[in-house]
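During the second half of the funding period, the structural biology subgroup turned its attention to how the target accommodates small molecules. The most pressing case was magnesium ion, which had performed well in the primary screen but for which no bound structure existed. We therefore specified the complex as follows and requested a full 3D prediction, including the ligand pose.
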Amino acid sequence: MEVRQDIRNIAIIAHVDHGKTTLVDAMLRQSGLFRANEAVVDRMMDSMDLERERGITIMAKNASVRYSGVKINIVDTPGHSDFGGEVERVLKMVDGVMLLVDASEGPLPQTRYVLSKALAQKLPAIVVINKIDRQDARAGEVVSEVFDLFIDLDATDDQADFPIVYTVARDGIAKLALTDTSADLRPLFDQILKTIPPPAAKFDGVLQVLVANLDYNDYVGRLAIGRIYAGAVGVGDQISICKLDGRIEKTKVTKLYAFEGLKQTPIDRAEAGEIIALAGIEDIYIGETVSSADDPRPLPPITVDEPTISMMFSVNTSPFSGREGKYVTSRKIRERLDKEALANVAIRIESTDAMDTFKVSGRGELQLAIIIEMMRREGYEVQVSKPEVITRSENGRRMEPIELTVIDCPETFIGVVTEALGRRRGRMTKMINHGTGRVRLEFEVPSRGLIGFRSEFLTDTKGTGLLNTIFLRWDDWQGMISQRITGALVADRPGPATTYALFNLQERGELFVRPGTDVYEGMVIGENARDVDLDVNVVKEKKLTNMRASTADDAMRLVPFRELSLEQALEFIREDELVEVTPASIRMRKKILASNQRPKGRVTE
Ligand SMILES: Nc1nc2c(ncn2[C@@H]2O[C@H](COP(=O)(O)OP(=O)(O)OP(=O)(O)O)[C@@H](O)[C@H]2O)c(=O)[nH]1
Ligand SMILES: [Mg+2]
């Protein structure tokens, strides 16, 4: 093994929102990549539309900066637990991590998860305590909580002897002690060069590149991103792709890139230790190895944790099918889902007994909702079922996933939250009172009980609560958990909803449609306050009488209807209902549309 001093490879990992992407921004800015007056957006790495809209990172991405003659390749990762698979696989590209922790919130479930993955790969960590500018920052305490976390995760002495850097990512400031004065990130850059080992590899060995990420570039199409573990690669070289199924495919390198700042720059040749992107290879997937043409040596494939939740995706069978989307057939849907699974190792697609239905499994509701949202923006129509947890059987016993649920909320809500989680078979395991008026509660809850919990929780805590969950273990099936206890208001015939009909229905419960919305028989148009489904006529017109009717419509004041987002609709539906998703609409419907074929009765089991 030899080392090369001119490169460092590092990933930035943390719980959601602790400031990873903001810190990468500051690092890019300070490396002199942009002209002083050049306008650059915030959170530059969050380049996908959905990332910008939601303010979260969804996919891991590469960038690089140069400091003191050294190229630092940085991988920004998502912090939301649903995208944990992204973090696991990109750790294969790096020699160390920056573990970011919010100076007020301290370590949260995903901090633990990503740290455990980094420790398992024996990566050294720099602990970065970010947001020390917060009014409620408690940096000292947070450092000792982080230390406890390392110990709890069986870190080696070396790992637990981590350096600490304090930052205000938003202002681009880093310091080694809270009392230091500093105006930039130099202390952090210096610490990276000091702590993160330079890549070690066999430079004259047989070429081995593990593909850890895929990307697309408008000019050259698909890019396979990975680190060169051994050997070197140049444009024009003959190479082989070691496929996941054991096949070896020969091809030639036509385009090779390295990361410079936010961009991929064409290069002629790269050596072990560097992170590169290869273009022009159509069928290349995550986990495959690029190796020499005549002596192919595959690296162990990438494995990530198993999915915990699944949903059925099927062809839109509503009467409105094909009205708003471009792609509606099962073949199109299957192709799109397969493509997703190739770029996203934490997703699984399976066929089912029904020809036009596919089972899609992932790490959480958000991850699946993001896939649906991307599909509808691309012009797909699809209908999806209520998310279900994946169970397994061990020695003939049915097991289900249990999640550690960490809640941070004002003291006054302890009662409602405990009660709500109790109904969902949650057990409180810890309660910490910081003495600030807020408490931290920890529960063990079956994943099943958490489906649809988030919106209830936000309502219960008047938007002030923080909720974080993470897979803990498999355990015995915890028994029945009741779902939505209200029924649905279901349209009994097609047509446009009328003000008159909606006005008369609104006292029964909350409505999801506005006057003029086209409905069909079996479409869920509202929530019935009682625990039965109710077939209703929403297209009814007022009978014309001899009386002049001009004032009547004005007098009918409608309570504002509630337009459900995709995630809210997924949380709302019951087992006998579906969400219909098209580029223009999100509708909810009964699985069985015809009223006379639907079983009637109370919806509670
Ligand atoms: N007060 C304060 N806020 C910060 C600081 N750094 C980041 N933030 C804010 O924290 C929020 C989250 O920042 P991001 O950089 O998107 O966090 P992230 O860790 O990349 O989030 P995910 O990728 O979704 O996990 C943003 O509103 C930032 O402006 C800081 O040093 N101080
Ligand atoms: Mg981010």
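Two results from this model are relevant to the next phase. The first helix runs from residue 20 to 30. The first strand starts at residue 2 and ends at 3.
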